[in-house]
């Protein structure tokens, strides 16, 4: 039985604001809290408990204590809890979407889309639990049997970013719980409320005490270092920037800790000469401006064949100018604010530097004055390939359009980046599109589609974009060890 001691009312909804450790909501040992802001106004909407390293170690104590019993529950027990959690998310979808919009700003309909997408990971992984098969066979010379089985990795630290506060959590939590791992969840400091609400639903769904622990903190680096120094923690799964991913991999090394890394991207959106231009414009609008461009699978560079570049630009720029920028609760809003002032300043610096490098602004190019961190949807062209805006992840509503003279040149530009998360290819000749998709170095390629995310498909990157995959049939393997038993025979 859990007692809720910490709550706030956010947009009329009661949200837990405590830590959740060993099945109890509680305050942090330091009794300290940090503020959560609405990026549309800058106003403080809640104060959430700020976990200390002592709290984090309490969470690890709880996760370690619960590991054996959770790891040995029947697959169907885990499936039913996950399925119940799915149902609870769906029945609370309007509330979750409203909380997400309040703390990260995006339009409500897009938040609702994330809730449905995020919930699907629980349904998907519930369906996986009964299919974790091992193998049985004979050794090649026939003198013993080879048995393989799957066992949970163990207590797992799950660190999530602010840009999809629910789904970046559920695609880790779903896989971890289905595999039989206990968890410590560390949400982004900008958006802890969505996850706090989810954690309460997980408890309601029947997750036993200690299996899900929740430790928001303003001291992410110290917390992860403390936890990862403790050899009881067996896994870290991180979604966020490549720089932090590198640091976590270094911290994972001494204890040889299993690591999954979903990192940054610099997605190319390649439009070949024979593409259906209207379809490419539709796809580019989604790939670039969904979530205000604050997505790891955003189109960072639109690479279009010179022969069709003008027609594409005319249509794309008009559609960009038509986007409605407003707070996420405004009916008809297409784009909300950026997450904070720091991110808005960064986007402006990238645009200014591009102009210095010779780029031309065809739309936007400036912040929107007034409250909140709004930025005008922007299109820039004539961008040198070496400009920071073409080499760094923008994470804002700014489209960079680059022209290429051939398929080969487009593919060369697409691959000219240390990142390899997602790419998009538009062409009417399917063989031509498939050839390009095969040559582009990315973990995911959308062909004639501006959106690839799907719980039933493996999500993840190559090169500096990460290690491992989330979702799909292999997502659960990130939380499983393969164990081999050599079984001797008394007779051949
Ligand atoms: P971030 O790396 O700043 O933070 C991500 C998380 O890590 C947060 O919870 C943060 O508090 C925590 N963190 C920060 N420093 C840490 C440290 N030293 N040790 C441990 N934890 C630390 O990223 P962000 O700004 O929240 O998110 C944007 C980034 O995330 C972008 O680069 C984006 O591409 C990436 N992202 C990737 C995927 C993917 O699936 N590949 C999905 C969403 C976002």
TrEMBL record:
Family per record: Belongs to the aldehyde dehydrogenase family.
MF GO annotations: succinate-semialdehyde dehydrogenase (NAD+) activity
One BP term from GO: gamma-aminobutyric acid catabolic process
Stretches assigned to the Aldehyde dehydrogenase domain: 25-485
Organism: Candidatus Lumbricidiphila eiseniae
Source species, domain of life: Bacteria
The entry's keywords: Oxidoreductase
Family matches, as InterPro entries: Ald_DH/histidinol_DH, Ald_DH_C, Ald_DH_CS_CYS, Ald_DH_N, Aldehyde_DH_dom, Aldehyde_DH_Superfamily
Protein name per the record: NAD-dependent succinate-semialdehyde dehydrogenase
CDD domains: ALDH_F5_SSADH_GabD (cd07103)
Pfam families: Aldedh
């Amino acid at each position: 039985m859990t007692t809720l001691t910490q709550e706030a009312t956010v947009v009329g909804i009661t949200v837990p604001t405590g830590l959740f450790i060993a099945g109890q909501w509680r305050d942090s040992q330091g009794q300290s809290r940090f503020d959560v802001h609405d990026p549309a106004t800058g106003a403080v909407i809640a104060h959430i408990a700020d976990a200390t390293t002592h709290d984090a170690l309490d969470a690890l104590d709880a996760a370690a204590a619960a590991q054996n019993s959770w790891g040995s529950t029947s697959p169907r027990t885990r499936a039913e809890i996950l399925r119940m959690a799915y149902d609870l998310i769906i029945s609370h979808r309007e509330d979750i979407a409203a909380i997400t919009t309040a703390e990260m700003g995006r339009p409500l309909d897009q938040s609702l889309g994330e809730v449905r997408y995020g919930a699907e990971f629980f349904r998907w992984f519930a369906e996986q639990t009964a299919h974790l098969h091992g193998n049985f066979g004979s050794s090649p010379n026939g003198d013993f049997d080879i048995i393989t089985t799957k066992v949970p990795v163990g207590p797992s630290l799950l660190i999530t970013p602010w840009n999809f506060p629910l789904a970046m959590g559920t695609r880790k939590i779903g896989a971890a719980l289905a595999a039989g791992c206990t968890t410590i969840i560390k949400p982004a400091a900008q958006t802890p409320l969505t996850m706090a609400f989810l954690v309460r639903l997980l408890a309601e769904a029947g997750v036993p005490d200690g299996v899900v622990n929740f430790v928001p903190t303003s001291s992410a680096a110290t917390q992860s270092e403390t936890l990862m120094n403790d050899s009881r923690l067996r896994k870290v799964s991180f979604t966020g920037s490549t720089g932090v991913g590198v640091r976590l991999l270094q911290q994972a090394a001494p204890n040889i800790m299993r690591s999954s890394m979903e990192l940054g991207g610099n997605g190319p959106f390649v439009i070949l000469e024979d593409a259906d231009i209207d379809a490419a414009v539709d796809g580019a609008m989604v790939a670039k401006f969904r979530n205000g461009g604050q997505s790891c699978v955003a189109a960072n560079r639109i690479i279009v064949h010179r022969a069709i570049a003008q027609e594409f630009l005319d249509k794309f720029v008009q559609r960009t100018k038509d986007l409605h920028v407003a707070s996420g609760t405004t009916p008809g809003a297409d784009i909300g604010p950026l997450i904070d002032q720091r991110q808005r300043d960064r986007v402006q610096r990238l645009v200014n530097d591009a102009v210095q490098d010779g780029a031309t602004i065809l739309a936007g190019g400036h912040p929107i004055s007034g409250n909140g961190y709004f930025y005008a949807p922007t299109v820039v062209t004539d961008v040198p390939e070496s400009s920071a805006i073409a080499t760094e992840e923008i994470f804002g509503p700014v489209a960079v359009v680059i022209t290429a003279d051939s398929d080969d040149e487009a593919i060369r530009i697409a691959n000219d980046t240390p990142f390899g998360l997602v790419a998009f290819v538009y062409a009417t000749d399917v063989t031509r599109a498939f050839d390009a998709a095969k040559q582009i170095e990315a973990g995911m390629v959308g062909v004639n589609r501006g959106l690839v995310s799907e719980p039933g498909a493996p999500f993840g990157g190559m090169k500096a974009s990460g290690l491992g995959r989330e979702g799909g049939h292999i997502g659960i393997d990130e939380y499983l060890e393969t164990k081999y038993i050599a079984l001797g025979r008394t007779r051949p």
